[in-house]
Design a protein that fits this description.
The complex is a heterodimer. Chain A is α+β, with helices and mostly antiparallel strands. Chain A is built from nine helices and 23 strands. In chain B, strands 1, 2, 3, 4, 5, 6, 7, 8 and 9 form a nine-stranded mixed sheet that branches. In chain B, strands 13-12-11-16-23-22 form a six-stranded mixed sheet, with helices on one face. In chain B, β17 and β18 form a beta hairpin. The chains are: A alpha+beta, B alpha+beta.
Chain lengths: 471, 464
């Protein structure tokens, strides 16, 4: 494939002849492959699903601010490119953003770190890779009647993004992303007819069967436990949160509140303020191995790095893209991402303008040891298996959802399963006020990567559990 | 002529090229666009929505469905996608037809815009947004507000080898106002959302009084006391009742889940599940409904489907396969998010039909409990049959009267138990429809309307 074929470079070549002032083109060319399951049976195979498009951003000074126009399209014809440029310029005349400068990265601006962003086998053999994975996923159920697959899908996106701008920069990143949705249900036995289900959603950048058999065994156990779970008791505030539910809570809230967007709206905590327990340190690692958002460059072409957002409980520097860096007179932090914090799309990035966002948030492991040791230290409380969905609210910092499966902790041991009722609280709020990260009492010693978060299990006090059983 | 109509001959030819390998194939081609404007104290961000074009081909292999898709509507892209699908179909075509009835209807439909949204210039949109911003920030304590105004144009053409040709153009307009109250590092807000199919006339429905009210509510939330927790009497406002109808009940009526034995509702189909005054409906033909469509993505016409009729669970939502398996008819509920997404059985506009209680009567009947308002989200549990709804605010009900403001809450509990606990449904004058986006699980988001009146019942309440 020649360089001329790359989407952004091709579009940029046409625009370079007609556009004045700062501009940037982000191109994307992707293929997607999917297998959908009904039980253990394939009900649909999809792919290749091809998409190619670009997003153009132009910047026009307006007094002491800038007007920013962004337009995206799949129309790559010469006329389509010209129309997109005209629309972007027209839009910029009505837009305003309080940045004092727009400094797009130039050719000489950083070589970028080496980071693996592609599952090579998946890239080269997507259909076979997906079929092999699905076989490994459902084969543990051969001959089983107590627990069976309910439904599922495995979706792989293979995308190549390209970036060029008025400074002449040329960046190219290839990515693979895999979304797994899989539900298992348990029935039969002395518990009667009512089935129990455990439903998994995961996003990774490689398609691997490493550890899959162990994961499937745990999911089956959870589905069985759902059937015998007792009602959740009220009032318990001592909770062990493993990585999976934390991944739905922490990135959307902390990723937003520790960004230039929140700072501009006076919602960000002040650097230097203590907002978390002293044992809590949070990094934003744009180079984490197998991180979904790991890449040598962000979506504006600036080098991604590893930075500390909260250092032993104290707030550090927020994430800045080009525009927000300009607004605050700071340097971009390699955080210009196309997609919301913790929710970047696996493809279709070209349809979104960049904004400041964390890449992979990393909670540094602590001295709490294994999950069993954390549970032992907690003594009495709840080990959370899964919330239906925690509904994280980035603006207020609140979260809360229905307990799909959890376990009582009694005398330092994981005991009977419980379900129903809600668990909630505030992930981040004003300094000194109780919150999830203020109330961390213990941090496990081994981190796991789940979506946009790498974290060990956390022992947290101060969350509210509302159930109907006695406490 | 739109690019979709221009491409029709190429689409038809590409579709015909599949006929030698399959007893049935179809193509759904789409062009989307629109505009969005966001305005707050710090920035004004107008943006045309991405102009996306493409087509997805689907064919029956004899054992499963196969699909390929491509962005762009050029002949080369369409031929390539069809060719890739041909290559995956058996060389000797199956004689086994796909399950269910293939739509054969033809038709052209478009959203009625009393005042075309495209006639609303960017200057006028900006003026409207600044006016709404001014209304919100005129309330003492509100220093900022986020105002958005957007419209989405979605044009789809469905062709099949069975002879169906359905062309539709749906226009959706949505506005939101979110006043922000910030005090000593604590952030609170309330929100006002309006979204319908239609034109610029929708924008004119938001009033100064509406915006003042939500701004004052945002201020009040800063001082909201800790909410009560546990099982109690709950009075759902229309937005929460609508989300209940959609998330808690509606997802369980999607018949693909029943075929997978993954619906807690399957065993109670035909049985009484609620009081006589409870009727739940999904209606893709609801006038101006946010989730309204003219045809689904299998070519069937959208229609009104009654799910619960005066307390009895009478019907489910179907695609062609589930309809065939359950001896029902496909009811216009097969939807794709876009030309790159697969079709699923989906809801359109799901709502609770009005009853005959006034709000005052319901509050008095509640005696002690909470009034749950401004529903922000919900999540289904199709097999477990539990419910999960989140509201942005609530009010304590004490001695049959509405009391102080409470912060955001989550509601949970078993849906069937909740239905049995319903003690009253509000009158028609309370009925509201709300715009939302619905996922199938965590993906494939589509516009879906929810609606209802007030609903009095019992549930577990906790913080969120």
């Amino acid at each position: 494939m020649s360089d001329e074929a790359f989407t952004a470079f091709r579009v940029g070549e046409q625009l370079r002849r007609s556009l004045d002032g700062p501009w940037e083109v982000f191109g994307e060319r992707g293929r997607r492959y999917e297998i959908h399951l009904n039980g253990a049976t394939t009900e649909m195979e999809r792919g290749p699903l091809h998409v190619e498009g670009f997003g153009l951003r132009v910047f026009r000074p307006q007094g002491d601010q800038y007007g920013v126009g962004f337009v995206a399209t799949t129309d790559l014809s010469e006329a389509g490119i010209a129309r997109t440029a005209a629309d972007a310029q027209a839009t910029s005349a009505f837009a305003r953003f309080p940045t004092k400068r727009v400094e797009l990265p130039a050719t000489v601006n950083g070589a970028g770190a080496s980071v693996e962003t592609v599952d090579r086998h998946l890239w080269e053999h997507p259909v076979e890779a997906l079929r092999d994975y699905v076989h490994a996923l459902v084969s543990p159920f051969d001959g089983r009647t107590d627990v069976v697959p309910s439904f599922g899908s495995v979706r792989a996106a293979l995308s190549e993004t390209t970036l060029t701008n008025s400074e002449g920069i040329q960046r190219r990143v290839r990515r693979t992303t895999v979304e797994l949705e899989f539900a298992v249900k348990a029935f039969g036995g002395p518990e009667g007819r009512a089935p129990g289900e455990f439903w998994v959603n995961r996003e990774t950048c490689e398609l691997t069967t490493r550890g899959l058999a162990e994961d499937v065994a745990q999911w089956c156990q959870r589905a069985q436990d759902v059937r015998i779970a007792r009602p959740t008791p009220s009032g318990i505030t001592n909770v062990i949160l493993p990585p999976e539910p934390l991944a739905d809570i922490v990135p959307p809230i902390l990723g937003f509140r520790l960004s230039g967007v929140a700072e501009l709206r006076k919602m960000a905590p002040t650097p230097g303020d203590r907002i978390a327990a002293e044992s809590f340190t949070l990094d934003d690692d744009g180079l984490l191995r197998h991180g979904l958002e790991s890449a040598p460059y962000d979506d504006e072409g600036n080098p991604q790095v590893r930075r500390t957002l909260i250092d032993r409980g104290v707030v550090g520097t927020p994430a800045y893209d080009v525009l927000h860096a300009g607004a605050f007179g700071r340097a971009p932090t390699g955080s210009g991402k196309r997609g919301a914090a913790g929710g970047a799309p696996s493809w279709f990035r070209f349809t979104l303008p960049p904004g400041p966002s964390a890449t992979t948030l990393v909670v540094r492991p602590g001295d709490g040891g294994s999950e069993e040791e954390l549970i032992e230290a907690a003594g009495d409380g709840i080990y959370l298996g899964q919330l239906g969905f925690p509904f994280p609210d980035p603006l207020s910092g609140a979260f809360g959802g229905e307990i799909r499966i959890a376990y009582r902790i009694r005398h330092g041991k994981k005991a009977e399963p419980i379900r129903g009722g809600t668990l909630g609280g505030v992930a981040l709020t004003a300094p000194g006020a109780p919150s999830l990260i203020q109330s961390v009492r213990g941090i496990g010693g081994r981190a796991e990567l789940r979506g946009a978060l790498s974290t060990p299990a956390l022992w947290v006090d101060g969350l509210t559990v509302a159930g109907e059983g006695p406490g | 002529m739109s690019s979709l109509r221009s491409a029709e001959d190429d689409l038809a030819r590409a579709l015909r090229s599949l006929e030698a390998r399959t007893p049935y194939a179809e193509v759904m081609a789409e062009v989307t666009g629109g505009h969005t404007l966001r305005h707050d104290r710090n920035a004004t961000t107008p943006a045309p929505l991405p102009r996306l074009e493409g087509a997805v081909f689907r064919a029956w292999s004899g054992a499963l469905w196969l699909e390929t898709a491509a962005s762009g509507l050029g002949r080369h892209a369409l031929d390539a996608a069809a060719e890739e699908l041909r290559g995956r179909l058996p060389a000797t075509p199956t004689t086994t037809p796909p399950p269910g009835d293939s739509a054969t209807g033809r038709g052209e439909r478009a959203t009625t815009e009393k005042r075309p949204i495209d006639d609303l210039s960017l200057e006028q949109r900006l003026e409207w947004a600044k006016t709404m911003y001014g209304y919100a920030t005129s309330v003492p304590g509100i220093g900022n507000a986020i105002v958005t105004l957007g419209h989405l144009s979605d044009e789809r053409l469905f062709l099949s080898t069975a002879g169906a040709r359905r062309h539709q153009h749906v226009v959706r307009v949505r506005t939101t106002v979110v006043p922000l109250a910030i005090e000593n590092g604590k952030v609170e807000y309330d929100f006002l959302t309006l979204g319908e199919t239609g034109g610029a006339e929708i924008v004119e429905k938001l009033t100064e009084a509406d915006v003042h009210l939500v701004a004052k509510e945002a201020i009040a939330l800063l001082a909201a006391k800790e909410a009560p927790t546990g099982r109690m009497t709950v009075l759902l406002d229309p937005s929460t009742a609508g989300t209940f109808a959609h998330e808690s009940f509606g997802h369980g009526t999607e018949a693909d889940q029943m075929l997978r034995n993954r619906s807690y509702l399957k065993p109670v189909l035909g049985e009484v599940v609620g009081p006589p005054e409870l009727t739940l409906v999904d209606d893709g033909s609801y006038p101006t409904g946010w989730g309204s469509i003219f045809f689904d993505d299998e070519g069937h016409e959208a229609r009104r489907n009654v799910l619960v009729d005066h307390g009895r669970f009478v019907g489910a939502l179907h695609d062609r396969e589930s309809a065939a398996a359950m001896h029902a008819t496909a009811g216009g509920n097969t939807r794709r998010s876009d030309f790159l997404s697969r079709p699923f059985v989906r809801m359109t506009n799901t709502f609770v039909e009005p009853g005959d209680w006034s709000v005052e009567e319901l509050v008095k009947e509640a005696k002690e409990g909470v009034l749950m308002q401004s529903c922000s989200s919900g999540m289904e549990d199709p097999l477990g049959g539990n419910m999960q709804l989140k509201v942005k605010k609530a009010r304590r009900i004490h001695r049959g009267e509405i009391g102080e403001m409470l912060p955001s809450l989550a509601l949970s509990g078993g849906v069937l138990a909740f239905l049995k606990s319903i003690r009253g449904v509000g009158r028609k004058d309370q009925f509201e429809m709300s715009p939302g986006y619905c996922g199938k699980g965590h993906t494939d988001y589509i516009p879906a309307g929810t609606g209802g009146t007030h609903l009095l019942a019992e549930a577990i309440v906790g913080p969120a």
